[in-house]
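Help!! Second protein's tokens look totally different from the first
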Amino acid sequence: MKNNSKRHSNERNRNNIINIAFLALAVFLSGLLYSPSYAQQAETLFDGSVSHGGFGGPVVQIGNVAGTTGAWVGGRGGWIINLDQNHTISLGGGGYGLVTNHISPFQFEGDEELYAMGGYGGFIFEYTNQSYRLIHLTATTLIGGGALMLRERNFEDVKDEVGRYFVLEPGINAELNITSFFRIAAGVNYRFTSGISDFGFSDSDFSGFNGVLTFKFGGFL
């Protein structure tokens, strides 16, 4: 009898300990979930009111190509992420083609004069500061690649040989809000190429500063 009584007593004590442990755990969890009105809000880099948009449009670049003035025409677009009213980023891409005539140092025997033909494109990251202001600044970086070929002046013949190269192109722009869905950005970038060694051209012929004009159409806020 005494052993049974002692066993029952031990079981009651064990159950009491388990109940107390569960009660303590419940109190602890409720303390984590309960947020007093006087508690301070955690500081964050951005305020959390993120909105999204998108844009696309044509781009014109003017700079030096192989010692003469060259023009590149193309377009770009991106997904806009408004982190807060002061900080906006966009993730997208773009591509540009050379539209001016630049004689190649290398010529095939018996052919007419041959000219550089090519283009490049890639991923574009852009940061915009205070995009709600009438005029604001943006910073862009393109990372990608390009291809270089030769053509006749009138495009009647395009050679099959292709030279490929890497492109890194950072830039900075001043952007003007024309309407709620249309913006114009004007700025400068620097095109850095690596790997051009075909048709008598080199990286120095396609690397350098460019004036850039970008037209953006889309939803920005």
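Here's the second one for comparison:
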Amino acid sequence: MKEKNNNNLTLEEVDILKEVGNICVGNSTSILSQLLGGAVDVHLPGLDLLSAKELSNYIKEKGKMVYGVHAQLSGCLEGTIFLLFPEKDLLKIIGKFLKDVEVEGAESIKFGISIIKEISGISIFSYINTLSSMIRKLITTSVPNFLSGSADELLNMIIREQEQLGSICIIHTTFKEKSMEIEGSYYLILNKISADILVDFMRNPV
């Protein structure tokens, strides 16, 4: 009998999903390091299986203002992915790219949002492309959308539509860019069916 953790995933399944998150974030943050100009440290991913109703108690940045992008996944796997930054770190990123650009007022806000969408979109696509390559199946994403608000409100807004699916699997990975001391978080959120599909692909690669 396979040993289970308290989230009703076997320890093997937890290890597989964490390794997937680790590899995908590793490739994504290498893109970020090139864009931001410094090395990036990645923390080992956390993984949980929970109901959508439990999500608000799970979010690490609960109540904190965050900014970033999210994209919906479809095709072989269904879910959503977020890349979120605290407000102070988002301003550092925008400041880096605005310092040589003569814009102000409303134009600077538009420019800043465009920067975050571009950087985060590139990073997210790298994450999903890595995941797609690992399982050798097509995963498509929607156009990344810019988000701002408290982390728990944003994630609950997106996940609310999945309440009827029961359990959702969250792979949460944080990172820190050293030169600018910027921190961020990836949340890959899959419905339980997609998480099971992912585990099966990793166990039995084509």
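Reply: Different proteins will give different token patterns, so don't panic. The two ends are 26 Å apart (CA to CA).
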